[in-house]
């Protein structure tokens, strides 16, 4: 990619300079070279207050801190979930546990990439780790995004199948074996869906002291890079959102109909509602300023699911809480000695007096 000499420091002095800067950046995310350029072109207004805004620095530091906290909590939570699932999986195998284990492993890989994104965000989205780490970190992030959604979708299908066929005779071992094959298929599809990101992720220098880690599709024949980018983004939306949303919604709607038709006593069904809001807003400077703050903040909040998944799908279950309690007792000598003393005190208290 050619170095952009007209956008020094990420700032554009005029509309002509903005257009020249954007003409030099025909890649996938090269529009990130300057949000102010896009503001100027779309609104004919240039807001110089974005440059050096202290609130922007505070937001980036806050997001970096949240990434660090999510990384620490995610490492502990997902490692505990994997340990408890593995110890229970040897005793009782089930398809749900297999998918939850895959989800925990996916989240564990994902949180390992968060320190890199924390530094990237704190440095105003400048990538200081080089091209190889750009490919590795961005590819692992994208692949685990796909895998996480696919495992959640598989859990919905498995939950529907296990409840609707609970009166039939099915072996747990055969269901667990099928779940393992489905898990392998999930990783294979996630890897194939991530290949474009792996191949075309690169480092782009957009200013003398500014390098970004982004996806840049080259020009090839009649295909325009923007068209290829549009197809790639459409693939991400379809595979990572639309298709899983349809499958999960269908499974829970069918499950709700099954429970209502059978009127099973003591049964409980948890439904997750997905709310999609469409807003019509005019192009304005204030709107794009808000987007510059809201988008990284929303991504930050979305990443917190990596430390919430172990709690939602594993640690709230009674058998796993009991396993966690046993692990704490075995790992802590004081708790272990206290647990041994309590039964003795109970026996002494119950002993008849002479």
What does this structure look like?
By secondary structure, the chain is mainly alpha-helical. The chain has two domains: 54-316, Up-down Bundle (Rhopdopsin 7-helix transmembrane proteins); 321-354. It is 69% helix and 4% strand. It has eleven helices and two strands; from the N terminus they run ααααααββααααα. It has helices at 15-23, 35-43, 54-89, 95-122, 130-164, 172-200, 225-262, 285-303, 305-315, 318-331, 333-350; strands at 201-207, 210-215. A two-stranded antiparallel ribbon has the order 1-2. β1 (201-207) and β2 (210-215) form a beta hairpin. The longest helix is centred in the last third of the chain and has 38 residues, at 225-262. The protein is globular. Residues 1-51, 269-281 and 345-351 have low confidence and may be disordered.
Key structural traits:
354 residues; Rhopdopsin 7-helix transmembrane proteins; 2 domains; globular; disordered N terminus
What would you say about this model in short?
This protein has eleven helices and two strands. The chain is mainly α.
